[in-house]
């Protein structure tokens, strides 16, 4: 469990006493910094674990509703070769925390990508131990999330069961912060924040999301219901799958900072929130002790419209790491050319960056500063450490559609990982499904950027 420091100027204090004379940040990308590959470890895509013995029978096989429609697939389950699967895939790491002893805390997101196709995908968090010398990742511990005390206010898939294990049709968990004896989790569907007991995975707290006094709701929120064709449009202000993707905490663990994956809809303006005409997402502050939103939020300005957030972690009292990405996948060297459509990437990855952002001197409701970035499509690999994707030019790329894990390891390095969306994403190879990959990047100068 991470220890939080009380000394020094805390993020919440720094922001509350920000200097009004400081000019608001702009959407400037800041300085580009080099990243050097220092380690590469892989967890095979076909890593499955059994459902707990006390789980309903329906959870013993996963992926039964992943066809072209949510109708049940009648095919015989496999051990990872084709859907459905015997057991639960570990795939889809989304959100990472450095624990300081060579292990990392990660979470598996909602399962198979959508609310309608994931009612048999169990929600779980893990402790993992990458071995960068050997290129492997050990699964140390898995904790399944459940709601036996009925803290969650809406009907869940396993409502009538005694254990009430949660599934990817209930929540889409994307960001995690271990604080004390609890794990705080950011969800995309609501978007919601829940807290679970770190030892048992049982839900202890549930919170709706508010920005400037207004509840934030996506089409997947339980309170949003489709009307009749001639009825009034329901009240929601966030796109589907654009809830909390980044989920950071202050260094002392007193505040949480949920970063929405996409911008809020401003009904009065008839447009999504933006900075200078470019999409901007909200970073919303939550007081852990009070169990309430503070009423303060900031804007994260995207580099371009239709970009998305991957992950967010603070590294000190006023600075944080944010993954910003496009929706492409695959190395541009394997892009389709001359009319080809097979054996190549039709929409290769072009924009996969990690930004250093700063809250220093930034008032609430203003855009945070982007002080610098590293390009995950242009990593230096002078020692040939890449275990997959090795190139003759000594460069290494991380060409995945969803890169959803970043945290500081020490003053020189960060860890970065993909969400492999098993068994759907193919970014490393045009044929083989993606593995879970973790890399250590040496970025000392980047970590000093202010």
UniProtKB/TrEMBL annotation:
Q: Name one Pfam family in it.
A: Phytase-like
Signal keyword on record: yes
Name of protein: Phytase-like domain-containing protein
| Highest rank taxon of the organism | Bacteria
Please tell me whether the keyword Cell membrane is annotated for this protein: no
Q: What UniProt keywords apply to this chain's record, in alphabetical order?
A: Signal
The signal peptide, as residue positions, is: 1-27
Residue span(s) of domain Phytase-like: 88-422
Organism encoding this protein: Breoghania corrubedonensis
């Amino acid at each position: 469990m991470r220890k939080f420091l009380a000394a020094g100027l805390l993020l919440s204090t720094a922001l509350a006493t920000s200097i009004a004379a400081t000019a608001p940040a702009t959407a400037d990308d800041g300085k580009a910094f080099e990243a050097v590959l220092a380690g590469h470890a892989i967890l095979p895509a076909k890593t499955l674990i059994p459902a707990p013995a006390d789980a309903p029978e329906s959870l013993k096989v996963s992926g039964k509703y992943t066809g072209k429609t949510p109708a049940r697939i009648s095919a015989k389950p496999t051990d990872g070769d084709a859907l459905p699967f015997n057991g639960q895939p570990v795939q889809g790491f989304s959100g990472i925390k450095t624990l300081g002893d060579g292990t990392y805390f990660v979470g598996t997101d909602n399962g198979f990508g959508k609310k309608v196709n994931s009612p048999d995908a169990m929600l779980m968090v893990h402790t993992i131990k990458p071995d960068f010398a050997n290129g492997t990742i050990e699964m140390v511990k898995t904790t399944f999330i459940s709601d036996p005390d009925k803290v969650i206010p809406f009907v869940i898939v396993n409502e009538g069961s005694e254990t009430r294990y949660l599934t990817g049709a209930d929540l889409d968990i994307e960001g995690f912060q271990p604080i004390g004896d609890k794990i705080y989790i950011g969800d995309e569907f609501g978007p919601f924040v829940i807290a679970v007991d770190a030892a048992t995975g049982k839900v202890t707290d549930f919170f709706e999301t508010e920005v400037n006094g207004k509840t934030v709701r996506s089409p997947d929120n339980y309170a949003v219901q489709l009307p009749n064709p001639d009825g009034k449009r329901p009240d929601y202000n966030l796109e589907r799958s654009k809830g909390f993707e980044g989920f950071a905490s202050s260094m002392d663990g007193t505040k949480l900072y949920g970063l929405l994956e996409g911008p809020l809809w401003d009904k009065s303006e008839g447009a999504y929130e933006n900075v200078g005409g470019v999409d901007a997402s909200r970073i919303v502050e939550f007081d852990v002790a009070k169990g309430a939103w503070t009423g303060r939020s900031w804007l994260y300005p995207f580099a371009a419209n239709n970009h998305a957030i991957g992950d967010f972690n603070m590294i000190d009292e006023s600075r944080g790491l944010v993954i910003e990405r496009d929706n492409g996948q695959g190395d541009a060297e394997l892009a389709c050319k001359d009319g080809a459509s097979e054996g190549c990437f039709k929409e290769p990855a072009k924009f996969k960056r990690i930004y250093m952002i700063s809250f220093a001197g930034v008032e609430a409701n203003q855009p945070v500063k982007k002080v610098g970035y590293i390009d995950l499509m242009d990593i230096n690999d002078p020692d040939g450490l890449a275990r997959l994707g090795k190139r003759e030019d000594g460069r290494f790329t991380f060409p995945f559609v969803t890169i959803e894990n970043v945290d500081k390891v020490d003053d020189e390095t960060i860890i970065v990982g993909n969400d492999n969306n098993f068994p759907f994403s193919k970014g490393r190879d045009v044929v083989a499904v993606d593995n879970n990959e973790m890399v250590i990047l040496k970025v000392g100068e980047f970590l000093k950027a202010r």
